[in-house]
Write a structure and sequence with these properties.
- This protein is α+β, with helices and mostly antiparallel strands.
- The chain contains 15 helices and 24 strands.
- Strands 1, 2, 3, 5, 13, 14 and 15 form a 7-stranded mixed β-sheet that branches. A 5-stranded mixed β-sheet has the order 18-19-17-16-22.
- Helix 10 runs antiparallel to helix 12.
- The radius of gyration is 21 Å and the shape is globular.
- The mean pLDDT is 96.
Length: 466
């Protein structure tokens, strides 16, 4: 048996899966937690990956890392962090993102240059924040890596030069995504001086070897790895309900959305991965369950005992700011509360808000790509909530496929490792597991437009999409 390892270095933890390269079957899996926060000492990720891979790494013939996108790992001349890494969900760089977009000639010019209109999450915006707020630290920066690059380098044999892939690099704000080449001038403009960038590893090729002698693939961003792990094809739309909410699809051609809603990322297989991302997803339900003093199953049952529209209660769920629409300073807003409002109504409003937010993300993705989805797949921890499963098809406007539960980022990284090991033109074709298809009944379809309209009305009253 040829074994490959895929590693998911996410916001919350490191997960490692050891996989049979022939069919994608997971033979072992381990995990280790990460510190909580929007800025983290990146060396904590290295300790976590060492714990999660202990006893497994020696068994792998090839390894790849999928990691949280956008984070800024700024290193000095000795390869040490000049400060804690700023993560994708750190919004302090919202103003500097706007500054960079203006300097590039406006939103459409920015999208044309790098595939996306930069917002607070992008690495370039964090570099500019560092320049403006911690100039002494900025002056010491000699190299900038993404989180997955930093973990990959830790696993690599001594003397390996830092590397990355075009998928994760397309979220930095200094990659020409359509061409797949760095724009070092944009990185220098963000930080205030020239900086070393990692070499770009082509899809399906090796970046080097690990300390244990295994082949090391280029790795990629978490969303790109998930697309590989899911085996997404052109026409599929993937809706992911994790810490963030994501609607993404595979495209053969790049996009450049000047509105900034659709980010025009590259994928890990030579194509593109247009995406709409929300900052608030599963935590909407986490917070609501905590407020009501129930677990997620009970929250779902309560929501289903209410009525469509939650008795007139509507939630704009931008508790931690928002990225789509771009409102980094936003807070959550409730409306329609009455003396007749029940706990079940509050539970229902939270679930409806989550799904309405993702429904808008899917619609924006479809409008920009010009392609109606052949399938809508839904993954993530929040999909286990019974109310999410019951309400999703009507509010998303499509039948919803639920793939088997799995660590798809880590599986995608493992598939990338197997691809590089095989040296073939395309990733290995691993069989998919059984999929559950959710459909909406007539009553749910009839009620959905009014629920969507109430959500959109509240969003526009608090601030328009633009």
């Amino acid at each position: 048996m040829t074994l490959v390892m895929g590693i998911d270095s996410s916001t919350q933890s490191t997960k490692a899966v050891l996989v049979d390269a022939a069919d994608g079957r997971v033979v072992d899996a381990r995990s280790a937690p990460h510190p909580v926060g929007t800025e983290v000492d990146p060396r904590a990720w290295l300790a976590a990956v060492d714990r999660a891979t202990d006893g497994l790494l020696d068994l792998a013939d090839a390894v790849a890392v999928g990691g949280q996108q956008h984070g800024m790992v700024a290193l000095d001349e000795d390869g040490e962090p000049v400060r804690d890494a700023l993560l994708w969900n750190d919004t302090r760089s919202a103003g500097t993102a706007a500054d960079l977009v203006a300097e590039m000639g406006g939103p459409q010019a920015c999208a044309d240059a790098v595939g996306s209109v930069m917002v607070a999450s992008f690495t370039a915006a964090k570099l500019r924040w560092l320049r403006d707020h911690e100039p002494e630290a900025a002056a010491r920066v000699r190299r900038v890596l993404l989180p997955h690059d930093y973990v990959s380098l830790h696993l690599a044999a001594a003397g390996t030069e830092p590397f990355t892939d075009r998928g994760d690099a397309s979220g930095t704000g200094y990659l020409d995504t359509a061409a797949g080449t760095w724009r070092p001038d944009l990185a220098a403009a963000a930080l205030g001086h020239e900086v070393d960038l990692p070499r770009l590893v082509a899809p399906g090729t090796a970046a080097g070897t690990t300390r244990t002698g295994a082949l090391l693939a280029g790795g990629t961003g978490d969303n790109m790895a998930a697309a590989l792990g899911m085996g997404l094809e052109v026409g599929d739309v993937l809706v992911s309900l994790g810490t963030s909410g994501v609607a993404s699809c595979i495209s053969a051609t790049p996009v450049a959305d000047g509105s900034g809603v659709v980010t025009g990322f590259a994928d890990a297989a030579g194509g593109f991965l247009p995406m709409v991302t929300t900052m608030n997803a599963a935590r909407i339900l986490d917070l609501q369950a905590a407020w009501l003093g129930v677990d997620h199953d009970e929250l779902g049952r309560m929501a289903l005992s209410s009525v469509p529209g939650a008795g007139g209660v509507t939630l704009s769920p931008y508790y931690g700011g928002e990225r789509s629409p771009n409102r980094p300073a936003a807070t959550g807003t409730w409306t329609g509360l009455r003396d007749t409002t029940t706990r079940a109504d509050l539970a229902r409003a939270a679930v409806e808000a989550l799904l309405c937010s993702l429904a808008e993300a899917v619609e924006r993705l479809v409008a920009e790509t010009g392609r109606q989805p052949a399938r809508v797949l839904m993954v993530g921890g929040a999909t286990r909530n019974p109310a999410v499963q019951a309400l999703a098809p009507a509010l998303l406007g499509h039948d919803v496929s639920l793939p088997p539960t799995g660590e798809y980022v880590a599986l995608g990284a493992a598939r990338q490792a197997a691809w590089a090991l095989a040296g073939t033109d395309a990733p290995p074709a691993w069989p998919a597991g059984p999929t559950t298809v959710l459909t909406a009944d007539d009553a749910a379809r009839s009620a959905a437009p009014a629920v969507r309209a109430a959500y959109a009305d509240l969003r526009e009253r608090t601030a328009p999409w633009s």
